[in-house]
Amino acid sequence: MNDSFTNRTCISCHLSSADMFQQVSFKELMKVLGLGAVAFVLGVEWLDWLKRRLRVSRGPLKEVLFFPSPHVCVEHLFTRHGRFPCACPLPHGVETSFSRLLEHLLSACRSLDLCVFSFSHMELSRAILLLHKQGVIVRVVTDRDYMTITGSQIGTLRKAGICVRHEMSSAVHMHHKFALVDGKKLITGSLNWTLTAVQSNKENVMVTEEPELVQPYQQEFQKLWEANDPANHKPQTTNGGLNR
Amino acid sequence: MNDSFTNRTCISCHLSSADMFQQVSFKELMKVLGLGAVAFVLGVEWLDWLKRRLRVSRGPLKEVLFFPSPHVCVEHLFTRHGRFPCACPLPHGVETSFSRLLEHLLSACRSLDLCVFSFSHMELSRAILLLHKQGVIVRVVTDRDYMTITGSQIGTLRKAGICVRHEMSSAVHMHHKFALVDGKKLITGSLNWTLTAVQSNKENVMVTEEPELVQPYQQEFQKLWEANDPANHKPQTTNGGLNR
Hints:
Two copies of one chain form a homodimer. The first copy, chain A, has 244 residues and is an alpha/beta fold. The first copy, chain A, has eight helices and seven strands, in the order ααβααβαβαβββαβα. Chain A has a seven-stranded mixed beta sheet, with helices on both faces. Chain A starts with a helix and ends in a 17-residue tail after the last helix. The relative contact order of chain A is 0.13.
C-alpha cells in the first residue's frame, strides 16, 4: 500500500508546474462560468417575480399611450422567433406608443372583440389576421359608412374569414374605438385605426385590466354584436319596402 | 306652600278633559315631529357616510357611460336652487348618460381642463360658461379646423373670456376628447361634444379618479397647452414665409 502510494506521488511529481496551473485554472474557470450562469438565470427569474409582485401590489394593469407615434420597425412583434434580423431602413429596437398597442393586441390568446369606427391601418390589420390564423376568435363591429371607404381593411378581414358586423342604421355612426383582449384587457380611447391617427394626430389610448372598467365595455360589445346580427335584419329594397 | 300647591291643583282641575287631551296630543305631535326630523337628518347623514365609506373601500371612482343618450330635461342641473320646477315638455327626473356627464362636469370647483376635437353641443357649452361664471378656471385646447365649423361653440367660449388654444399645425388633428375636473377627475372616451354624438352615435365615456390614469392625461394637457401657446408661434404669411 505504501509503495503504490509512493509511486502515485512520484508520477504526480513528473507533471510540470505549468501543466498543473493550466489544469487548475481551467477547472476554476468552468466553476466560475457555471456559477455565473446559475446566478444569471436565478437573477432573471427573481426580477421577473419581483415585477409580477409589484404589479399585483399596484393593482390591475393601467397604461396610457399618447399619439402621434414615431414610425419605427415593428417586425419583431410579428416574427418573434425569426432567424434573421429585419433589414428595413426604419429604426429598430425602439419602443413606441404604437409598438405597445400592437404588443397588447398580439397578447390575445383566446379572443379579440373589436369595435372600431374606421380601420385602414395595414399593420393593425396584419396583427388581426395573424391572431385569426393562430386560432384566436376575432369578432369585429364597425361603422356602416366607413367600412367601405378607400383603404378600409374590413374587406380584407372578411375575406380571411373573420366575423365582421356593421351598424345597421345608416343614420347612426358606430363611433367606438375599443378592443377587448381575452375578455379581460380593455384598449380604448380616441384613436381610430388609421395611419393618420397613429402617425399624425394627437390621440390617446388607455389599456386597463380593471374589471370595473372592462366589464361594461364587454357588455356593450355583446349588445352591439347581437343588435347588428344580419339574421335579425331584413334586406332593404328600393321599391318602397314592398317585396313583390 | 301647601295652600298655593292646592290652588294650582284646583286651577288645573278647572281645565276640561278635552282641553287637556288637545294640549297633550299637540305636545306629543311636536315631540314626534321633532324626533322624526332629527332621525331623518341623522339617517341622511349616515347614508351619505356609508356611501363614502363604500366608495373608499371600492377604490377611486370608475364609471362608464354609453351613448346615444335619451333626450331628457337637465334644467335642474343648472338651476339646483330654482324656485319653480321646469315646465318644458321633455321627460323630467330621469338620469341618463348625458345627465351624468353634465353632473361630472358641473362638479368642478377650481379648474376644468378640456381637450376636445369638435364642440358644438349647446348644453355642454352652457355648462362650461356657468363654471367660468362661478370662478372655475377653464382652459380649452381644440382642433384648428373644427373650431370654425358651423355651430361650433368655441367662439362663444372665447367671447365669454375663456382661454382657448388650438392645434397650431394645419396638417395635424387635435383628436382628443377628454376633460380633467379639478385636476383629479378624468372624463375621456370617443364622444365629441356634438348633438349627433350625444343623441345618435354609439359612443363611450369613462369617468375615473384613478391617479395612475388621471396623471398622464394631466401631463398631456399641460404639454399641449404649452405647445400651442400663440406667444411661441409666429403668424403665418402667404408670401412663402418671408416677412417683407
